[in-house]
């Protein structure tokens, strides 16, 4: 369960006395490699689970505690230990359950920013440097800024130092989707995490005056409320989800129906609204709007709350807000590639948040959304892998996660995009253009003097990355190599198979490889050429490289951009 692994979280702080961060007596002692400190005024707030916490200058308060009304740091830190997708109790509602199946990894908290003030770059860099000195194994960074060339991006440079110190780094892809080129934190050494949905919905049913019933979502599920009054229809973009409900309530509304546009598409959110609310998808929104138009002033509706339901389909899908590629500066590596659950994530929240009238005050959880919430799930998974495979490098862990990710949804279909309500597959992301850095710029990123003429350079597509993205002139043939390292069993034979991108021939040699020992390396070559049918310039064609030993199955996505 990840014991002995230290996960560092740089965020807005933590709520230390929350049940999620208490040691119930089952935690192993803190690893002897830990060199950090506990900077709460009350030192006993640290324990074998929360082994350290420190705040950096620029934070409004010197204490590493999270703000009371904005629990971003508390929320993401708890997720890092709950990768098993548990459903803790929320507001004491039926249909939820608490499962104490936390990882046994240790948490080190670095308070360096708050959600309202993400650009405290100096503090964030100082926090990452402190985490490196303290001996963390994994850094979970649910923060970002608009992409910059790497030599101008202090955060990317700091994370490269972390990678050199053998620390696994995962970072949020950003929440600026569905627009192209919105991906953040896209350096090749980082696992860049997008956000997907899951199959759980906290349902709110809207019954229209004409008898039609439609489904939406709401995290607030009151059992009794005022039945008469005005229901207000804010558009999705008209403020922060919960704030909209506060405003509607203050204005005398009794209920609220949040209407998606085609941009939000199929994503609905189960926020802790302060009055009866249903957040409905675009199809449903159009139905409701039609009803309103047709019935004008005589329109009526009620909202009924049906608690948690599982089995939503399609699932998972990509949340509309998840930032999209290509990354403008990463030189041809596709980012983000794999989303992780980041929509309607229920996790720990500061104890005395005013919105929560809770009985069990030590068990306060709240829903939140974002690639921020997806990122610590991957930190937890990296902790599991690191604990089992102590000598795996950070690149090996990243490769293991990427090459074993499922490309299909729960029904075996390609994963769909919530934007525009599932008309697109989620994986048609094009390549970033390469940028040429001079010696000064490369030296800045590397943190040491580098002379490109001496160390040489390779094309981005020749980087031994777990995914393959190339550009192809259809009149030519292109070959790329990959070196495979056996982390499976000794004496394993893998058959290699390619699902060719449409219109492209891919020849792999050899067509099967035999490993006789663990850690052994084998090279393969992939040769790409056009099948001769017309291919449009700029087209992006997807395929798969698959290796199957009968015991282990691994997969590298292939993307070909036509020149
Ligand atoms: C310090 O924290 C511990 C654990 O939460 C608590 O039991 C104790 O009362 C606190 N001490 C003070 C002086 O607040
Ligand atoms: C939109 O919500 C309705 C429930 O009202 C559901 O039946 C439908 O499948 C949803 N559409 C999409 C594209 O998810
Ligand atoms: C219900 O609405 C009435 C009239 O608007 C108001 O006086 C009353 O306080 C409300 N009750 C609740 C429980 O909100
Ligand atoms: C409402 O009016 C629209 C045209 O504005 C029509 O297409 C639709 O069928 C009507 N819906 C209902 C429920 O009557
Ligand atoms: C939700 O509950 C209401 C009221 O009990 C009921 O009318 C409705 O059919 C339920 N909807 C679903 C989808 O279960
Ligand atoms: C690299 O480019 C930067 C920005 O254009 C420039 O200031 C610097 O002098 C260049 N360095 C070398 C070694 O060419
Ligand atoms: C790929 O491997 C082949 C065969 O070992 C070699 O000839 C070729 O130079 C390699 N290509 C690159 C780009 O390293
Ligand atoms: C990792 O450690 C295992 C067990 O100690 C060993 O068998 C294996 O060869 C090592 N792998 C690498 C890549 O060093
Ligand atoms: C595989 O390719 C790498 C990089 O080109 C090379 O250094 C290595 O010697 C090759 N290994 C084998 C077994 O051919």
Automatic annotation (TrEMBL):
<feature type="domain" description="Subtilisin-like protease fibronectin type-III">
    <location>
        <begin position="462"/>
        <end position="560"/>
    </location>
</feature>
<dbReference type="Pfam" id="PF00082">
    <property type="entry name" value="Peptidase_S8"/>
</dbReference>
<feature type="active site" description="Charge relay system">
    <location>
        <position position="11"/>
    </location>
</feature>
<comment type="similarity">
    <text>Belongs to the peptidase S8 family.</text>
</comment>
<dbReference type="GO" id="GO:0006508">
    <property type="term" value="P:proteolysis"/>
</dbReference>
<feature type="domain" description="Peptidase S8/S53">
    <location>
        <begin position="2"/>
        <end position="406"/>
    </location>
</feature>
<feature type="active site" description="Charge relay system">
    <location>
        <position position="372"/>
    </location>
</feature>
<keyword id="KW-0645">Protease</keyword>
<keyword id="KW-0720">Serine protease</keyword>
<keyword id="KW-0378">Hydrolase</keyword>
<dbReference type="Pfam" id="PF17766">
    <property type="entry name" value="fn3_6"/>
</dbReference>
<dbReference type="InterPro" id="IPR015500">
    <property type="entry name" value="Peptidase_S8_subtilisin-rel"/>
</dbReference>
<dbReference type="InterPro" id="IPR041469">
    <property type="entry name" value="Subtilisin-like_FN3"/>
</dbReference>
<dbReference type="GO" id="GO:0004252">
    <property type="term" value="F:serine-type endopeptidase activity"/>
</dbReference>
<dbReference type="InterPro" id="IPR045051">
    <property type="entry name" value="SBT"/>
</dbReference>
<dbReference type="InterPro" id="IPR000209">
    <property type="entry name" value="Peptidase_S8/S53_dom"/>
</dbReference>
<feature type="active site" description="Charge relay system">
    <location>
        <position position="72"/>
    </location>
</feature>
<protein>
    <submittedName>
        <fullName>Subtilisin-like protease 4</fullName>
    </submittedName>
</protein>
<dbReference type="InterPro" id="IPR023827">
    <property type="entry name" value="Peptidase_S8_Asp-AS"/>
</dbReference>
<dbReference type="InterPro" id="IPR036852">
    <property type="entry name" value="Peptidase_S8/S53_dom_sf"/>
</dbReference>
<keyword id="KW-0732">Signal</keyword>
